[in-house]
């Protein structure tokens, strides 16, 4: 039976019914590869079709399937035996063009541009989405992203850094001259307990959509999860309104170019996001000062910007960190409709509103906007983000996040989230301001007078409380303060993760071309 993308229950990639598609799907899509060290190798294909196909064929050898990744994941969970080096190959629109696919065929195969809300599509690429996403102009991006056609992205990952470097060296040595565009190294930051964090010091990777049966074995707090239809119950509570389960259609689309009914792929966004850690921490302290927060509650200033404390405690469930369970993900904002606990502009409330976002002209609800994040931190720093250190010693550049995400539509999911949620000063409520972390602002030359800076967000020193039904959003307990500008997009590209059958078809075409005899002239 063909794979149903609107499945109502989690899938097991290793059942006999699933293997026909999971062995053809690349890994890292429905589950992260889980390795702590990555080499993200950007490649520019040769200008001739045969040379381009031959290079893709070589690089595609040994890519990790979803089925293999799931086998290795279960082996590690039960036996603590690590998996092999992970490999994944992604192709950009310029890459498909160099492989010989014309515009008509590409338009038929990649129809994510059929989403009118955001002009950010796979075929248009990251440069074509600059205005829609309010990104910095490409002239301000880092040179590798600014200058080169990034036709391929080969992701190589391993838990052993030295072993990864040797594998990466082998790949680089095998590349033809002029094809290596850039390499971005990623290294996961973790707490003492093994949880992933980012450079601002906050636990990262919460609120992911979940697709497989093994994802429902335990929740983030280690509690057993029971799932009945669309209801997930964890630790005695319920997440009836916003369960983590997602149908495969959120992240997978048929790989039309593979000509195989069991072949699927996914759209992929890569963005290098530099973090000004020192600036963010100084702003945290300035906001705490402005709100006159007492010593025991000063950490709440940064937590209100993120929506969680550093240990993962959601602001909406606790006024301080250390809430049990600290990794709580079983919540929504139904009891905080006035934003008296978690500000409307908080990063996790902006980008994952959990039932609050209104439909726009019948556009699908917000659950269909979710993205499947696979990012990893980059950059070296003298001290771990959670180590005691003076603010003056924190980095202001050179560190950040290699943001990566999968989805079934770039404009419908990541593009919409960035443009209409994070970048909007009027989402979730009018006048709340930008997302403090990833919200981007461009001066409005049409305004009178012209807008040169984003509006200041409004913050409350008091946590919780009550508000009358008709009370205005703005009240005397709020303080205006601008928390933004500490994350800078340094460049990126849009890719597609093709199916393994598609990659194998290029290998077959490459071998056929190599065997084709040279035509002889009539004189001989």
Helix content: 10-25%
What about the largest sheet? 6 strands, antiparallel
Class by SSE composition: alpha+beta
Total number of β-strand segments? 17
pLDDT under 50 segments (min length 5)? 228-240, 518-524
What would the principal axes of the Cα set say about the shape? globular
Q: What's the gyration radius in Å?
A: 24 Å
Mean residue pLDDT? 89
Counting DSSP H or I runs of 4 or more residues, the number of helices is 14
Percentage beta strand: 15-25%
Q: Could you give the distance between the termini?
A: 56 Å
Throw out a few tags for this protein.
6-stranded antiparallel β-sheet, 14 helices
Walk me through what this model shows:
With 524 residues, the chain is an alpha+beta fold. It has a domain at 19-191 and 246-271 and 490-514. 24% of the residues lie in helices and 17% in strands. The chain contains 14 helices and 17 strands. It has helices at 19-22, 49-60, 66-79, 93-98, 103-109, 125-128, 130-133, 143-147, 161-174, 277-291, 300-306, 347-351, 411-422, 500-515; strands at residues 37-43, 86-91, 152-158, 180-187, 189-190, 196-197, 225-228, 231-234, 237-238, 253-254, 264-275, 372-373, 376-378, 400-407, 457-460, 478-481, 487-497. The strands form five sheets. Strands 10, 11, 12, 13, 14 and 17 form a six-stranded antiparallel sheet that branches. A four-stranded antiparallel sheet has the order 2-3-1-4. A hairpin with a 2-residue loop joins strand 8 and strand 9. Helix 2 (49-60) crosses helix 14. It is globular and about 75 Å long. Residues 228-240 and 518-524 have low confidence and may be disordered.
């Amino acid at each position: 039976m063909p794979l149903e993308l609107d499945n109502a229950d989690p899938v097991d990639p290793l059942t006999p019914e699933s293997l026909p598609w999971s062995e053809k799907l690349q890994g890292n899509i429905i589950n992260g590869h889980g390795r702590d060290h990555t080499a993200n190798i950007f490649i520019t294909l040769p200008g001739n079709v045969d040379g381009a196909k031959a290079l893709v064929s070589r690089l595609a050898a040994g890519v990790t399937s979803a089925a293999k990744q799931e086998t290795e994941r279960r082996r590690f969970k039960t036996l603590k035996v690590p998996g092999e080096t992970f490999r994944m190959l992604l192709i950009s629109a310029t890459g498909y063009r160099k492989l010989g696919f014309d515009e008509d065929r590409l338009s038929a195969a990649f129809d994510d541009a059929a989403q009118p809300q955001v002009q950010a599509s796979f075929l248009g690429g990251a440069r074509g989405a600059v205005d829609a996403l309010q990104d910095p102009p490409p002239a301000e991006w880092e040179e590798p992203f600014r200058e080169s056609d990034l036709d391929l992205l080969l992701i190589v990952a391993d838990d052993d850094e030295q072993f990864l470097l040797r594998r990466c060296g082998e790949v680089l040595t095998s590349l033809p001259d002029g094809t290596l565009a850039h390499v971005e190294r990623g290294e996961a930051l973790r707490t003492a307990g093994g949880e992933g964090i980012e450079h601002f010091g906050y636990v990262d990777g919460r609120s992911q959509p979940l697709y497989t049966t093994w994802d429902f074995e335990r929740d983030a707090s280690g509690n057993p999860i029971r799932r009945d239809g669309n209801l997930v119950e964890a630790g005695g509570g319920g997440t009836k309104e916003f369960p983590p389960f997602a149908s495969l259609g959120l992240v997978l689309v048929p790989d039309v170019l593979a000509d195989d009914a069991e072949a699927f792929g996914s759209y992929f966004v890569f963005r290098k996001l530099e973090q000004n850690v020192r600036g963010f921490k100084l702003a945290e302290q300035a906001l705490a000062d402005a709100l006159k927060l007492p010593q025991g509650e000063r950490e709440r200033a940064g937590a209100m910007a993120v929506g969680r404390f550093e240990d993962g405690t959601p602001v909406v469930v606790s006024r301080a960190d250390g809430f049990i369970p600290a990794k709580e993900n079983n919540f929504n904002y139904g009891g905080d409709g006035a934003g008296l606990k978690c500000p409307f502009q908080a990063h996790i409330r902006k980008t994952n509103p959990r039932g609050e976002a209104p439909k726009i002209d019948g556009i699908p609800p917000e659950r269909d906007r979710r993205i499947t994040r696979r990012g990893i931190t980059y950059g070296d720093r003298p001290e771990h983000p959670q180590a005691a250190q003076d603010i003056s010693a924190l980095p202001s550049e050179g560190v950040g996040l290699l943001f990566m995400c999968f989805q079934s539509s770039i404009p419908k999911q990541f593009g919409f989230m960035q443009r209409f949620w994070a970048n909007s000063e009027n989402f979730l409520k009018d006048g709340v301001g930008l997302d403090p972390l990833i919200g981007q602002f461009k001066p409005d030359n049409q305004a009178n007078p012209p807008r040169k800076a984003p509006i200041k967000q409004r913050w409350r020193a008091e946590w919780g409380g009550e508000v009358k039904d008709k009370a205005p959003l703005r009240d005397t307990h709020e303080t205006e303060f601008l928390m933004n500008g500490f994350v800078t997009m340094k460049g990126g590209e849009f890719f597609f993760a093709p199916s393994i059958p598609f990659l194998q078809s290029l290998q077959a075409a490459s071998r056929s071309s190599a065997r084709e005899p040279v035509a002889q002239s009539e004189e001989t």
